[in-house]
Specification:
Shape of chain A: globular
Shape of chain B: globular
Structural class of chain B: mainly alpha
Oligomer: heterodimer
Strand content of chain A: 5-15%
Largest interface: A-B, 88 and 95 residues
Order of helices and strands of chain B: HHEHHHHHHHHH
Number of helices of chain B: 11
Largest sheet of chain A: 2 strands, antiparallel
Number of domains of chain B: 1
Strand order of the largest sheet of chain A: 1-2
Strand content of chain B: under 5%
Order of helices and strands of chain A: HHEEHHHHHHHHHHHHHHHHHHHEHHEEHH
Structural class of chain A: mainly alpha
Helix content of chain A: 55-70%
Amino acid sequence: MSAQDFFLLSVLLAVAGAVAALLLNRYGRVANIVTGVSGFVAALLGLVAGMSVLITGQGFKLMLDAGLPFARLVFNVDQLSAFMVVVICFLTLAVSLYSIKYLDEYLTKNPGVLGCLINLFIASMLLVVTVGNAFYFLIFWEVMTLASYFLVIYEQDKQSLRAGFLYFLVAHAGTALIMLAFLLLYQAAGSFDFDAFRVIKLAPAAASLVFVLAFVGFSAKAGAVPLHFWLPEAHSAAPSNVSSLLSGVMIKTAIYMIIRVCVEFLGAGPWWWGFVVLLIGVISTVLGPIYALTQHDIKRLLAFHSVEYVGIILMGVGAGMLGLALNNPVIGVIGLMAALYHLLNHAVFKGLLFLGAGSAIYRTHTRDMNHLGGLAKLMPWTALVFFIGAVAISAIPPLNGFVSKWFIYQSLFGLGVNGDFMDKVFVPLFAMLLALAGAGTAMCMVKAYGSTFSGLARGQHAREAKEVPTLMLIGKGILAVGTVLFGLGAPLIAPRIATAVSSALRLAPMSVTDGALQVFPGIPAQATLATPIIAVLFVLLLLVPIAIVVITGGAKAGVRVDATPWAAGYKYTPQTFIAPRSFGQPVQTLFQRLLPGKITSREHGHQYGPTPGKYFKRMEYNNQIEDVWERYLMTPVAKAVTWLSQKVQVLQGGNLRVYCLYIIITLVVLLIAIDILNL
Amino acid sequence: MEPNLLLIGLIQALFVLLTAPLYSGFSRVIRAKMHSRKGPPLTQNYLDILKLMKRQEVIPAPATWIFRVTPYIVMATALLIVMLLPLWTWQSPLGIVGDVILVVYLFGTIRFFVAMAGLDSGSGFAGIGVSREMALGMLVEPTIILVLFVVALHAGSTNLGAISTAIGSGRVPFITPAIWLGLAAFALVSYIELGKLPYDMAEAEQEVQEGALTEYSGRGLALMKWGQAIKQMAVVGLFLSVFFPFGNAASLELVPLLIGLVLFGVKMGLCYLVIGIIENSMARATLFSVPRITWASLGIALLSLIFYVVQA
């Protein structure tokens, strides 16, 4: 079987799984098993297809004659598409295993429908990244949006409906812009085929217009600031396995399309294209963790980090575009390679973290970290994999998050060395802001892990939690292993991605590794990184403290486990431990301007203590952060849309004769238009 | 990897491992002298560590494996940083393994694990200390990266050896505003990174019981203290290898290496002397006054960037 057979089978299996799950809806657990297993096998087949394209370097093209005269259904899987297929399938593999058990939560809520939507969602993502025709792309894009929309509102509570509404609004506003961009390209190329888009050369003004439309349209879907506000809502409202796919891969399909349209189709553009992408990336990168730090809903917290990581990926894309604008293919390839590598890594660890959060929610039924805590003792394996995810996302060397971030720094550094005046001024500042975001991420992950897994349980459910089923652990385990392998395996992975990028951009292949242990950003003299050696040295250096303990007789001193931590003589209670809200408080004070809010406290009337009314009063302490984006961007837009739709309602009176009149008016207008345009 | 360089890296790690308690003991001596006390002997920290090692370790009930392995991880990571720094050579002993960005993120690794272990202990004091420590990281790390980025741009490489060679050999002139301003900014932020008075709010003994270390005892505490001492030497070492590589060995021959080693010991001692004087002549700052100094250092770093851009 060839790569294309595997690919087609994979998509067909995902669709078949969707249909089967829907039909088996009434047999809840069976439907769940069908959902999970079909997703798993489809992902496995997709992985084989994608990997074989990446390894052989031979893409494939599938053409299906669908009966539309103006658009052919073409699938064009080059190395870039194959890379995206691999990313999607790797995460799907883990999520599908996890889902088999996780979906038991939804046994009373039509699990078959949920399973059907999940598999359709997976299939549509695979199609979106491989299709080679703009018309069909928009269809699959819409299928993906709708499937994910229904998944977001699946819980049907107030929060998820609101989140779904926002998501629907932003996604379709974005799609409208994308449509316009494609229409402009179609006008110039005379065909909807991506192949035709590749060869045309647009006038500078038209190219810039396409760039702006496509970039804004796709970055709305990617969740970059300022169009990010739907993301934390939607990703926290969806079921956790879906959140994992949404954050892990769906928003990445938009990044993939930004690279396709803005870099590949349009070619090297003027300087400001790259700079705009870089700037939007930097803003998202900085704001993401700062907002995340003030969250106490664990899934919202993670979702804000997706905003950050989309920003970092866009930074890589922007640096690459600037490099291409400078006619410097080394920086161009390194920037895009760093972006794609980061995209892969983020899919792995963010997927892992969402699945980990999902496991905690599975057992405790709360997302509020104020009611969690102490789970490390009760769910040790979940705690371990969540910890690994937290280490990876905090860019701790030698795990995967660090390696790709290092490449982002190096692409910026390359710009600083070779760029023109503006690059030299701004690039070090952007590197600085990337470091700020990195420190914020580490702080936030310490908070997320600490509030969920450390200390003692602060809620009834958290006290009674127990470890999740093995299948869910295996799903997370796959991703945890991925964080290590994709970090240590950098000398194997980085060159594959670099080749995919340079072949997509039709540039000469570039060396990023010495073939054994090191990677470097195109030029070894600029810097080198050898993650396998770091790992080996680290393990060897761990022997030093162990030897010290043995030599000085520390091993014989023994260990005593005490009852509770010291609490200055008071009784240790779960509340003695730092609360999620207070943990982020220094940051709230340090970044007051970005996080306007107010702290209120209130004394409660009833008092308790040994002598009533004498010693203790119950205090309530409330720390409310105002959402600036909601107030100044989201609410006005939502209000305008509501206002407009109310006005439009006048047209829909329900009177059949009026509707006939509309049809006639439309016909007349069209006839006149055709006459004027001489078509 | 060159075997000679690796050997130098190992010697560096061993040297810093063995002298870290000495230099932190030196700090204590300076403090005592400034208090007009007799003070402990220079070797007091070695004795403390040996004593702690023999004590039974007490672990709080909520703590898990993170709490127990962190002291080992902290020490190993600190030693790894030391091996990456060109302390008395111009070449970085592990230059092919990683660069200055790796070093900054390894410092972040230590911070991350200490923080995780602090929360893992379940102590309320540790929670406050950790929250402060991580917030300090957000203030300090950006300036560190900015300064190092600009210096690396001067040298045209982020490899620490290349930076050290460029400055030490005079290829990048040392007496320029860009370098001097970078030096000043880096000195300010790395002082905060040391966690000493007046910026020890995360470890404040009188306030939050040494923050993340609250629940440590016995060998855990000994390793943690020792690891922190190595980390402090690594911070100063990073400063020295980027901004004062003068006198370091240009080649890997015995005589220049020995001269470099001796000079390194002296430079380190001088730095500790200055640090000790600053530390003991100030009262603790409040957490929310730190941004003032980090903003100042960021401003200086920006000036350094501007001078670099104008020069280029």
